[in-house]
Amino acid sequence: MNSIIKFGTDGWRGVIAKDFTFENVNLVSWATCEQIKEDLKANPKLNNLVFIGYDRRFLGKEFSQVVAKVFSQNGINVHLYNQDVPTPMVSFDVKKNSALCGIVITASHNPPEFSGFKIKQPSGCSAQKEYTDKIEKRLATVTTTTKENNNIKIIEPSKDYIDFIKKTIDIEKLKNIAETVIIDSMHGTGGNYIEDLLSGGRLKVKTIRCERDVNFGGINPEPMMPQLEPLSKEVIKKKALIGLATDGDADRIGAIDEKGEYINTHKLLAILLHYLVEKKRLSGGVVVTFSQSVLVKKMAQKYGLKLYEVPIGFKNIAELMLKDDILIGGEEANGIGSKLHFMPERDGIFNGVLLLEAINSFGLRPSKLIEKIHKEFGTFFYDRIDLHIQSPELGKSFVGKIKSTPPKDISGLKIREIKTLDGTKLIFEDDSWLLFRASGTEPLLRIYCEGRSKDFVASMLKAGQDLFEKKNSLQMMSF
Length: 479
What we know:
Blueprint: E1 7-8, E2 11-15, H1 22-42, E3 47-54, H2 60-73, E4 77-81, H3 87-96, E5 99-105, E6 114-120, H4 129-138, E7 152-155, H5 159-168, H6 171-175, E8 180-184, H7 193-198, E9 204-208, H8 229-238, E10 242-246, E11 253-256, E12 262-263, H9 265-278, E13 285-289, H10 294-303, E14 307-310, H11 314-323, E15 326-331, E16 335-338, H12 348-362, H13 366-377, E17 381-388, H14 392-404, E18 409-410, E19 413-419, E20 424-428, E21 433-438, E22 444-451, H15 454-471
Parallel strand pairs: 3-4, 3-5, 4-7, 8-9, 8-10, 13-14, 13-15
Antiparallel strand pairs: 1-2, 2-6, 5-6, 10-11, 11-12, 15-16, 17-22, 18-19, 19-20, 20-21, 21-22
Helix pairs in contact: 1-2, 1-4, 9-10, 9-12
């Protein structure tokens, strides 16, 4: 049983009723409690308190109640939310109250059949690998009991979190913009939070897919194309300034411009970096993950800001934000954090409102602002494909093969450099690149590409897929 409880880039995730069962949630909760109690001994300044939240997935509330019971049985005071809440809200409450940790039952942007167990440390950040490794080791020897529990307090969603956003971003100014904004919560915990923040003035705000649906309308609640097609259509229909989307647990941000075109995370990070430097006059380091854009790197260089590149996973960005003066950091998978926030963590709700503030400050439509940035720093296009394969091991094996015996060229284009910080990245002579990376939690091989034209990116992604099929007798899964 223990062997199926493995922590990935942000928590343990599994298929509900197969891997993610009440028995396993109970077990991993006990192991976490043992580690948490060691933390309290080492740092008595922390409050003997844990915040427990859950998203809108099937049995989320019931799983969170199991976690709450276990922590209570271990003598830890529990604050359990009375409804589903955004993951950033849990992180905020943990840090503000100097709590031992936060636990969120969520699988974020994973398919509907998944659930997950995220651990938020006193900083508000996700637990680092060294920490989750300790919990995994405890699984084999953990002893559970059936003590009485009487220290669970049911709480409402955090008003402090909402007040923080209102104090940090000029909400009243945004309310009086004579524009229309469409919000897409993708049936996740983002709900109506952004709409509630921005309503009450000249700005017209409409939220789509805000109601709970444990199947997320039959899609993965990941704020990127093609999942954001409904948002794109609504933006065009309402002639909106922008469409903003949050993922299943609202820690990631996606966006659609006024033309209905998807704004990928590379461009979102570029817009926010441009805003923080040009309008807010802030400085600090810039952190990008291994799959982030050349564009952001060139911007950091021109602004004279120190650049850091880390493995994929926002917790790697957060780790640097805890140590150094970091202005902003972003990952390809829609996660962004900045020094404006109370905690070094991604937050789809906060970043959605901040993005609107950034666009309004330049007085340009989103597409025109992106054109301005491209004109100043260079034009780059990006895309990613996810290949459904027969097992995670197959993907890891292929990435290893590319690393050990890389091709001399792809479609006739010579490879200038090979990087293996996280996956295998082939960099070409014009700074374009192709990255192969196996998912840590799903049977997926992800292929990423950035180049100087959309056609180039499409052709290189196809070449990458062909290379995978050529090197493997086991092909992609058929659906």
